[in-house]
Amino acid sequence: MQLSLENKKILITGGTSGIGFEILKSFLKEGSQVISVSKDIKKVKKIKNTINSLFPKESCYFYTCDCTNYDETFITFKKIYKEFGDIDVLVNNIGHGSGNNEPLPKQKDWKSSLNINFNSAQHVTSLFIKSLLNTKGNIIFIGSIVSKEALNAPTPYTVAKSALLSFSKSLAVKYGDKIRVNTVSPGNILFPNGSWDKKLKVNKKEIMEYIYNNVPMKRFGSPEEIAATVLFLSSEKASFINGANLVVDGGQSKCTF
Asked: In whole angstroms, how far apart are CA 229 and each of 31, 88, 119, 172, 173?
């Protein structure tokens, strides 16, 4: 399928591992110009070498920034805008589902989860929205099925991802004649050093029984499957998809909304 993403300017947050890294590679395969923003300097240095060896002829640029900090994000925004001008696609991928399962965790847990899973995306989107309006571009948020389903996930994470989905829908309605805004909500995605990989190493039998009993397709999803969904939503092939929450979970979700 021809997606016409060549030379499009793509900004990805949290693109140095897991789903984000696969999204980054997928856009490079399409010939896009990719800008990666991540706070982990060590991972950025490692990823640079990997990307340069895999895609020696493609354009990929790396910036280090803690997007939970608005002032730091603003400084990074100015650098990126000065270097590249307006962008075409923003992929808000930063997120983390770790935390304890107390019904009401301590305030520090709430603050940390909301910062990572909601505020970071809000900061980046608020700063780049004018740029996206100029190009009639689109925004994709990487959410989670916990935003629409009562699952045994940490409460702050569930609330943050629910807020992210609401944010996405609100922007889609208010900017609907100018840009497209959508959410991709993954289910259980397996990749090296990810949360499910760590759980499998502790108790493989129990985890696989959970997947077998709760996921109709009876397997984990892959980062490649999420990346393929993001590519499609970013392209003109999805030109009438706006305000959607595209669930990629092997049929696990039971809710219909």
From this structure: 17, 17, 24, 18, 21
Q: How many CB atoms lie within 10 A of CB 218?
A: 12
Radius of gyration of the chain (CA): 18
CA distance 78 to 23: 24
CB neighbour list of residue 115: distance below 8 Å, 6 or more residues apart: 68
Q: Is the pLDDT of residue 225 over 90?
A: yes
Separation CA 212–CA 214 (nearest Å): 6
Q: Which of 55-64, 131-140, 172-181, 218-227 has the lowest mean pLDDT?
A: 55-64
Which three-class secondary structure state does DSSP give residue 3?
Answer: coil
pLDDT tens sequence across 230-246: 999 999 999 999 999 99
d(CA 48, CA 55): 10
167 contacts: CB under 8 Å, gap ≥ 6: 118, 121, 122, 125, 141
List active site positions.
157
From CA 44, how far away is CA 41, in angstroms rounded? 5
